[in-house]
Write a structure and sequence with these properties.
By secondary structure, the protein is an alpha+beta fold. Helices cover 28% and strands 27% of the residues. A four-stranded antiparallel β-sheet has the order 4-5-1-9, sandwiched between helices. A three-stranded antiparallel β-sheet has the order 7-6-8, with no helix packed on it. A two-stranded antiparallel ribbon has the order 2-3. A hairpin with a 3-residue loop joins strand 4 and strand 5. The radius of gyration is 20 Å and the shape is globular. It starts with a strand and ends in a 21-residue tail after the last helix.
Length: 184
């Protein structure tokens, strides 16, 4: 559905694999830079999204994504006619069949693709570059999502994301023992 979504994804066992917090700032390692890069690349895979504020943390990821108007396709007289959500089309044919959405995108599809791509790249780097290994899965099974319904909520979430590194030791995903390098 069109809208803004606040996403949080955690590593399996909350292992700190993407860098560390130093003086209230997130210092990305190569894995963290890869996560950041793959988040940016999602726009190429899902052209109907916009990416807003995000941050890669040592053991989790926060991001705001926006799903924008999906296009409808209507078959008319053996021709495919693009119809926008407002009903405008580029052809005036009169025969219609029920419209269907082209490449529907759910938040779960986007998050799943992101997790999958990052996992594949991470596994390659463990094998080829000696990146820190992980315990069976890179990511926890599920993710957290929150629909952003108004400007105040959006502003609060953006501020939370921006200030997350400075408040790392108060974060619910922080644990001093887990903040150490993960070694299975």
């Amino acid at each position: 559905q069109d809208g803004l979504y606040f996403i949080t994804i955690c590593t399996q066992n909350r292992a700190c694999l993407f860098g560390e917090i130093a003086d209230g700032e997130m210092i990305l390692n190569d894995a963290g830079k890869m996560v950041e890069n793959e988040w940016g690349n999602l726009k190429n895979r899902f052209p109907n999204i916009e990416l807003h504020e995000f941050i890669v943390m040592p053991n989790h990821f926060h991001g705001i994504l926006q799903i924008v108007g999906a296009t409808l396709v209507v078959a008319q007289n053996n021709n495919m006619v693009v119809q926008n959500d407002d009903g405008a089309t580029n052809n005036r044919a009169t025969t219609r069949v029920a419209p269907t959405r082209v490449a529907p995108t759910a938040v779960g599809d986007i998050v799943g693709a992101f997790q999958s791509i990052v996992t594949v790249n991470y596994i390659r780097a463990v094998k080829n570059f000696g990146w820190q290994s992980f315990d069976k899965k890179l990511w926890q099974r599920n993710y957290w999502e929150h629909i952003i319904r108004n400007e105040k909520s959006y502003t609060n979430i953006v501020n939370y994301i921006i200030n997350n590194p400075a408040k790392w030791e108060m974060d619910t995903l922080y644990n001093n023992q887990l903040n150490q390098r993960y070694r299975p």
